[in-house]
Amino acid sequence: MPEVHPTAILEGDVNLAEDVKIGPYCIIKGPVTLGKGVQLLEHVSISGPTTIGAETILYPRSAIGYEPQDYKFKPGAPTAGVVVGERCIIREHATIHAASNDHTPTRVGNDVFVMVNSHVGHDAVVGNNVVIVNNTCLAGHTTVQDRVTLSGSCLIHQNCSIGELCMLSGGTTITTDVPPFMMVYQRNEIIGLNLVGLRRNGYSAEDINNLRDVFSKILRENMPRDELLQALSERMESSETVRKLHTFISEAKRPLAPVSRKRNVR
After folding, report:
1. Domain boundary pick from 141, 160, 184
2. Closest by alpha carbon to 193, among 179, 204, 206?
3. Per the residue annotation, which of 140, 152, 192, 197 is the catalytic one?
């Protein structure tokens, strides 16, 4: 049976897997579903509709599923809520807000680490194996693809997308779309490729070298998008990394972050 501390409050439709553990003074307002092995340590607050995947751990004062910070959203209006994946770690004072619509939830993938005092805004989509370091804020409708690292105190503007395996330096502000595999610094400033991340995640030397060549000869020119896509299309057939770059850029809805001209990037 689930272990529920006597001081915890469960209201409404709350579905608990058999080995869920709910600590002191937690508050759960359904509809909420907690998967196998989920742990709420203490003083955790969850408002439905919310689903938490197996083996996810929520630390004290984290708050999941409360209404979006959106002027257009009327308190009490229907919401699709939040879906959090498996094996996530949600640390103290982290918040994940409910969707501002009634059909598509705010979504956090599997194996995501949300550190202290970080925020995932309404209607955001966070991929798998993402690290969100202390005090980082994702505004509403943002997208963060798989295996991204957002260092401490990063600020991501609404509707922006961050591509796969990007790494943002501490304090970075993003108001653009950032293509995959980039390292970003200060404000929308690409300073190089995430070569360590590429190697650690199993990309071949050939794929990495193709990407380095494209970065040096094409991306750092900061050419218009149509020209950029044409240049990438001529190289993407033989390279997975270049193909992913082309796909991201072709689907981007905001301006792209430029490659810095101030630094000796590579």
Report:
1. 141
2. 179
3. 140
Cβ contact 239:201 at 8 Å: no
Whether residue 177 lies inside any domain: the answer is: no
| pLDDT 10s digits, 147-162 | 999 999 999 999 999 9
Q: Token pair for residue 138? A: 């994702």
- Model confidence pTM above 0.85: yes
**Domain end point (choices 141, 169, 188):** 141
Catalytic residue among 122, 127, 146, 177: 122
Condensed to tens digits (0 to 9), the pLDDT of residues 202-227 reads: 999 999 999 999 999 999 999 999 99
Token code pair at residue 163: 């591509």
Catalytic member of 70, 111, 123, 207: 123
CB-based burial label for 25 (10 Å; 0-12, 13-18, 19+): middle
Q: Are residues 29 and 103 both part of a single domain? A: yes
Stretch 169-191: mean pLDDT:
97
Name residues whose C-beta falls within 8 Å of residue 202's C-beta, 6 or more positions apart in sequence: none
Is 35 designated active site?
no
Establish whether 111 is a catalytic residue.
Answer: no
> At which residue do the structure tokens 């770059």 appear?
245
135 and 17 inside one domain: yes
